[in-house]
Fold each of these.
Amino acid sequence: MTHPFKPRNFPELSPGEAAAYVQNGMTIGFSGFTPAGAAKAIPKAIAARAREEHAAGREFKIGVVTGASTGDSLDGELARADAISWRTPYQSNGALRKSINEGRTHFFDMHLSVLPQNIRYGFLGKFHLAVVEACDVTADGQIVLTTSVGAAPTFCQEADKILIELNEFHPVGLRGIHDIYEPYDPPIRLPIPMTTAHDRIGSRSVRVDPSKIIGIVRTNLPDEVAEFKEPDATTLQIGENVATFLAAELRAGRIPKQFLPIQSGVGNIANAVLGAMGSHPEIPPFQLFSEVVQDSVIGLMEKGDITFASGTSLTLSPPVLSQVYANLDYFKDRIVLRPQEISNNPEIVRRLGIISINTAIEIDIFGNVNSTHLMGNDLMNGIGGSGDFTRNAFISIFTCPSIAKGGDISTIVPLVSHMDHSEHSVQVVITEQGIADLRGKDPTERAEEIIAHCVHPDYRDELDAYLHGVIAGHTPQSLQMAFEFHQRFLATGTMRR
Ligand code: 0RQ
């Protein structure tokens, strides 16, 4: 598609010229939620600048804030250049993860829905610059974003200055897929005027004072989204178990006949879950109200299994994105991209009755969930939107394979080594072994349910012995033995006895 944009009254800059505006110690809000819509050329040039400054013996590090994870040109390049002093709210990049776990980058984990308001409230200090990818920008300051919204509108409002990557890879026809709305702030916070997943409540572009726009860097770069692995037998079985559980809830009349909107995490399990729901004979066509619209959603939409998708990013592999761009008007009627403050908003999640489905790293026998840390110490990715949805869901579900690392790890443990979601928020646990329905159960009953239905047979007897060997108070837990599984793994490389 040809790109009609003329630079009008904004200077055109090279990535290097844009990066020259960045000073050591600045805080920058970059567009991007997953690699979708992430700034690409300017962060790379900032990384090059950091290397030059470091070679000249000068300090050069910046605070990096984004919607969520990004692509390698942003987090990877900047981390490898040792250019990130602090980072929030989420990441999933190997080089950055290493920098965080080695203490070279300060990272604090946040619920994604609160990031924009925390910036407006001043909790994260001054934002010097916003760097956002756009497919169009008008002389009066209307910025049309690309494949994600994330926190870009807030970065643009709150930062002193704005640099735009005008990415000609994306058609200007994307205008209309976004719904940009910022809530009122306390003390007078009005209700967000949404009552269905498909309501549109805002504008189609981000409106800024054009004098804040320093200039434009023209690019033509695809999003750095990886293709999905084919699901294996375990993820397919987890998907089947989720669909079986939801169909039974529907049959029991606990989920309304017309069904409820689904929030589903990212990755292979989420793909398998959506696929299984789509092909289950009892589950009617449904809506998605989630963060990320990923590949599987597009196929299910074309088949009519998903009727509408509300998210904050269109995280599609290159072939699937081309499929969407070839039929953009069809998909613009069925997909809306909102700021993460709205896509993940607790008020809306509770109002719409979202069914949340997220993946855990480990779960304890009482239903506390660790989504973020390995063996209590090292950060994996971050809590992302899982807390926004779980705590406020109509039904909250956590999935994971019952074992990891070829069986050396039981993902069900006596006590989680880090806690992101407490027992109060976690209603259903599903592994490939089966379904544990924790609703209305006390801690011992929850533990019995999880051990009977979700634990891998290799670890079932030991967990059962643990539960029944403890002199119980309300929660049967042994402070001496609660981390025996973890300690054994760290000492011997396996949790097996
Ligand atoms: O490591 O690749 O080295 O083998 O941890 O596991 O299988 O790649 O899992 O991609 O589904 O990610 C929770 C991280 C799962 C993700 C998490 C090892 C395992 C592997 C990762 P290897 P997989 P997934 C928002 C949704 C938080 C944010 C969120 C996540 C690696 O889902 O980041 O929910 N969630 N966002 O071998 C030690 C254990 C382990 C373990 C697995 N118990 N101990 N290592 N691993 N279990 C909502 C949206 O709407 C998007």
Amino acid sequence: MGFPKDFLWGGAIAANQAEGAYLEDGKGLTTVDMIPHGEKRMFVKLGDMYPVEEIPGENYPSHEAIDFYHHYKEDIALFAEMGFKTFRTSIAWARIFPNGDESKPNEAGIAFYTDMFKECQKYGIEPLVTLCHFDVPMGLVRKYDSWKSREMIDCFTKYAKVCFEKFDGLVKYWLTFNEINILLHSPFSGAGISFQPGENREQVKYQAAHHELVASALATKIAHEINPNNKVGCMLAGGQFYPYSCDPNDVWLAMNKDRENLMFIDVQARGYYPSYSQRVFKEKDIHLDIHDGDLEILKQYPVDFISFSYYQSRCASANPKMGMTDGNVVKSVKNPYLQTSDWGWQIDPLGLRITLNALYDRYQKPLFIVENGLGAKDEIAEDGSISDDYRIDYLREHIKAMKDAIEDGVDLMGYTTWGCIDLVAASTGEMSKRYGFIYVDKDDQGQGTLERRKKKSFDWYKKVIESNGEKL
Ligand code: BG6
């Protein structure tokens, strides 16, 4: 059976981890611009330390990142050489509305993205665009406390409308919020939320989530009104939870851990809060402020497809003494059957097949894997080559799992590997955690020439795409 003829092979990046040029051409500051590389990073990300202003002496990786802002032509040419059918990136909201709520958009920001999408079009690459990949304009954080406030719904839908109108004809595939469930685990980096002493944090997070869900549904409505060919997706930080054992307590916990993440997608894909949400809200003493019409909006404007990131499966045990493993902030019990990456992330290709099947069984909507890959340390040999066979092995096994899932009957639209060109790691702010087919000369201290260099995986992925997933 194999991959469908029109399968969207490609790669993914995000504005805040690649563009740099953080104040250029009128761009405003964003939440990610305020997250330093060093020890304070975690406190800021979790919402425990509100970043009022830049801390002198700290290194802020997003400020220059890999300077995609000035290198995009060269980079897109390399993506085209690999044969990309699609390229996922995000728009920095603060390039379009520097403070988030001006009456008119910033023309320079619109010009940048117009040119960049035209560059993709030149090579027949279909952009897949995230409207908000973690980077909320700081203007909105200062004025409204970000997604804690309902005002954000209007700010976001106005921004989304401008994007749908200005990039109509250039962009057809849209995602509203990157990894929407991450706001539960990393509230500031996920959604610009920090906490006041004594606040019920669960109440704050789920209220913010409600605002995002309504904003996402309204954006979907507007996208379809502007062009009925637009396809809008949601985006989940994915990875199925396994029960650690067949102890029913482990099974029950794993189910509930999955539900915690899937509640967002349940709303975005099915159009209503799932039945189990009421018990969750009661247990956490959450009283959502739901306005008249909100539930109708959620119902009427579900997404067209479901996208997700997959790095690893997760594991749950009712025994609190079990050892934990690393991951992109969603902590999980260590699975003794799995190997781990240099950063302690577990490697589980079969878990991708399991996740794809579980999501498709649950939603029966097309799926899109928009992030997957191996963060690893790469060495440049004396002859200048980079032999990243470990990355090829990782990707090969995951692509095989996708193929199996297609055989299982899953409707899979496409696959964009994460960080197709090396970029700043979201969790740690490091450059040395590399995902790319293309190496970028820059280190964790921000030093380097920014020169681009193909790795061994570059030619390998080119063949994968050329053969539509047959030559692995
Ligand atoms: C996802 C994010 O959580 O994981 C990306 O959407 C992120 O922004 C990716 O980069 C990988 O995580 P990290 O920390 O290795 O960059």
